[in-house]
Every structure is written in C-alpha cells, then in structure tokens.
C-alpha cells in the first residue's frame, strides 16, 4: 500500500529519454533499457523529483480521472516493476 511515508529513490545514474510520448530509461549498471508509456513517464518524472507517493497518486487520479484506489494499485504495481529491474529502490520512510 502506498502511504505518505513510502519513499523511493531513482537510480541516480539512470539516463532518461522521451520521444513522442514514450520514454526509455537506461540502467548503465545492467546495460538494459526499460520502455515506459506516457503514464509511466509521468510517474518516473515525479519520482525523480522526489515527490511523495501520495502526491503522485493524486496527480494520476486527477489527470486520468480514475478512482484513487485504482491509481494507487496501478502505481504500486508499476513501482514494484521498477524496483525489480533495478531502476528504483526504497529509501526508507519519509518524515
């Protein structure tokens, strides 16, 4: 579950490129590229800005007019996938 205390840190040396609404994130440590769609790119950008997860959920909820529970669940799955490919790691609790 995503809470205000949930905090993640993007891999600082990850290179990001956006082209025509698609994003590519290079993990130089593993020499892999992860492609993101427009929503994934928006979430990735906000994670890089160190925004609280609850603010990201609200932004997705507002932008795409989905219930908060749907936005939170989808973002949680997305974040887990970024952790799995090594682009994101937990950085402890906020506050």
What does this structure look like?
- The protein has 3 helices and 5 strands, in the order ββββαααβ.
- By secondary structure, the chain is of the alpha+beta class.
- The chain has one domain.
- A 3-stranded antiparallel beta sheet has the order 2-3-4.
- α2 crosses α3.
- The longest helix is centred in the C-terminal third of the chain and has 17 residues.
- It is globular, with a radius of gyration of 13 Å.
- It starts with 7 loop residues before the first strand and ends in a 5-residue tail after the last strand.
Summarize the biggest pleated sheet: 3 strands, antiparallel
The helix/strand series, from N terminus to C terminus, equals: EEEEHHHE
Strand order of the largest sheet: 2-3-4
Q: Using the CA coordinates, give the radius of gyration.
A: 13 Å
Low-confidence residue ranges: none
Number of helical segments with 4 or more residues: 3
What is the quaternary state of this protein?
single chain
Shape: globular
Structural class: alpha+beta
Strand content: 15-25%
Summary, kept brief:
By secondary structure, the chain is α+β, with helices and mostly antiparallel strands. The chain is built from three helices and five strands.
What's the SSE blueprint?
Elements: E1 8-10, E2 15-19, E3 22-27, E4 32-36, H1 38-48, H2 53-64, H3 68-84, E5 88-90
Antiparallel strand pairs: 1-5, 2-3, 3-4
Helix pairs in contact: 2-3
Keywords summarizing the entry:
95 residues; single chain; 5 strands; 3-stranded antiparallel beta sheet; alpha+beta
């Amino acid at each position: 579950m995503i809470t205000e205390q949930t905090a993640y840190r993007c891999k600082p040396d990850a290179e990001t490129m956006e082209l025509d609404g698609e994003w590519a994130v290079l993990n130089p440590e593993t020499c892999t590229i992860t492609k993101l769609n427009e929503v994934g790119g928006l979430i990735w950008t906000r994670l890089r800005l160190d925004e609280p997860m609850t603010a990201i959920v609200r932004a997705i909820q507002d932008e795409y007019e989905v219930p908060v529970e749907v936005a939170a669940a989808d973002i949680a799955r997305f974040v887990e996938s970024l952790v799995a490919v090594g682009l994101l790691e937990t950085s402890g609790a906020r506050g």
